[in-house]
Design brief:
Distance between the termini: 88 Å
Mean pLDDT: 86
Order of helices and strands: HEHEHEEHHEHHEEH
Helix content: 25-40%
Number of strands: 7
Low-confidence stretches: 1-12, 22-29
Oligomer: single chain
Number of helices: 8
Structural class: alpha/beta
Shape: globular
Radius of gyration: 32 Å
Largest sheet: 7 strands, mixed
Strand content: 15-25%
Length: 252
């Protein structure tokens, strides 16, 4: 107390109080993120990258194409795996195809431009019609163009399966597939048959059905017979089966 009875303020000022809860400045109000674009890009790619199965086929009247489309459906339903459809180049001139009453090709399915594209795949499903118990010349011509891949063994260790179309019940549902195995053997590839994994559908005798333990199949007859639901279901099953095999091999 001062002599006048009033309060005399002290000459010593107390030190300023600094609050630990002081609000941050406007410039630093956002969260601080220590980001690495390279790591983020790699993480994003690994999260979205899928194993790829190339479904490569030749189809003159659309029967093999029908199996291929259903096969893609089977592959795509397996998480982490996707199927890409490709046609092999046609070797017959247009005037011959017209005389054979072959329908035009669907432009939505691209033609594989080079055998070198096969390197990008993790697995394969090759489809083709029969010619005297062997694959059609168009597909054989494509395999014949893989010489550089064979020389480098670029496809060695990759799994592959077959699906076929024949005109008659004795036309090569099995031989068309097993005579094609030589192509895989020289490339060091792994042949993946479906066996009897389709279950009861493989044993049904109630109707004509293409397909065998070697792979899915369809009976084309004179070209006018359409694939049955059983034949298409077998193709879808083969797609799922191959996708599962490719996935297991990738995780090994």
């Amino acid at each position: 107390m001062g002599k006048g009875g009033g309060c005399v303020p002290s000459k010593k000022k107390p030190p300023p109080v600094v609050s630990n809860n002081a609000p941050a400045s406007v410039e630093n109000s956002g969260p601080i993120v220590d980001s690495n674009p390279a790591i983020e890009a790699e993480s994003t790619q690994s999260a979205v990258a899928k194993l790829k199965i190339f479904v490569v086929f030749y189809s003159m009247y659309g029967h093999v194409e029908g199996l291929a489309r259903r096969m893609k459906k089977g592959v795509d339903c397996v998480d982490g795996v996707e199927a890409l459809l490709f046609r092999v180049p046609e070797t017959l001139p247009d005037e011959v195809l017209v005389q054979m009453r072959a329908p035009p090709k669907d432009d939505e399915i691209p033609e594989i431009s080079s055998a070198a594209e096969l390197v990008a795949a993790d697995g394969f499903l090759f489809g083709f019609p029969t010619r005297y118990g062997c694959m059609a010349a168009q597909m054989k011509a494509f395999f014949d163009s893989t010489g550089q891949l064979w020389n480098n063994q670029s496809l060695a260790g990759k799994p592959a399966g077959f699906f076929v179309s024949t005109g008659t019940q004795g036309g090569g549902q099995e031989t068309t597939a097993w005579t094609a195995i030589t192509q895989l053997a020289h490339h060091g590839m792994l042949f993946v048959p479906i066996g009897y994994t389709f279950g009861a559908g493989m044993f049904s005798m109630e109707s004509i059905r293409g397909g065998s333990p070697y792979g899915a199949g369809v009976f084309a007859g004179d070209g006018t017979r359409e694939p049955t639901e059983t034949e298409l279901a077998l193709a879808e099953h083969q797609g799922k089966y191959m996708a599962a095999v490719v996935k297991k091999l990738a995780q090994a």
